[in-house]
Amino acid sequence: MLVRACLATSLDGKISDGLSTTPNFTSREDRARLFNLRSVSDVLLVGAQTVRHESLAPLIRNPKLVEQRRQRRQNDHPDVAIFTRTGELPWQNAYFQAAKQKISIFSPGPLSDSNARQAQELDIQLFTYGDTMNVAFDQLRALRYKNVLCEGGGSLIHSLLAERLVDELHLTIAPTVIGQGDSVCLVRGPLLDPRPEFRLKSVNQVGDELHLVYSLS
Ligand SMILES: NC(=O)c1ccc[n+]([C@@H]2O[C@H](COP(=O)([O-])OP(=O)(O)OC[C@H]3O[C@@H](n4cnc5c(N)ncnc54)[C@H](OP(=O)(O)O)[C@@H]3O)[C@@H](O)[C@H]2O)c1
Q: Which CATH number is associated with domain 2-216?
């Protein structure tokens, strides 16, 4: 299973201004890069706060990319695995109510009865994995996912890096500064020890923006 993570950061390491429902500080090429990575993925991993904050659907918008997925015998849209501890999700949102993608929910322990009922009504499969994300990744492997794309946010990326579960980091650095001390940073959580170290695989400059690919050493 190949696990990629794809995020965009400002020069001051922020991935969101906390206001916009979609990150709006990167170029059209960066958005295309994300959509291309999505289009080759079997499943997208996403943290609950990103689901609460962003309008994510539809996941694949370009008919050509959908056609390429069909030729590869993939569903039109990649599946989505949402990671949550609380299970508090915007169940009434079109993302759930008019879902074009198969959704599953991964949590360390069982959801509350009411959240589990909401998930059941929407035909969402629930997985519990206990103390370690490694178990969740075994569950993803058992579902026969080969290409996994983690779309963040910063807190979910931290959980993955803490257990060295990211093979490739696709990082866009946008030539802007967001400021605001409490806005979300690229990796959000306690000190990582040992620190994951990466090797630079490729650099692509698009105008003043950098598109980097790192692999975990
Ligand atoms: N620029 C970019 O590339 C980019 C990409 C993605 C997101 N974003 C932005 O980033 C912001 C969200 O980032 P964030 O760091 O606040 O939140 P996040 O990582 O999207 O979600 C955090 C939530 O995910 C759940 N979670 C995290 N780790 C978990 C684990 N190991 N097991 C189970 N559940 C886990 C918890 O959900 P519960 O609270 O439900 O327990 C946690 O509160 C949004 O503003 C979004 O728009 C930007």
A: 3.40.430.10
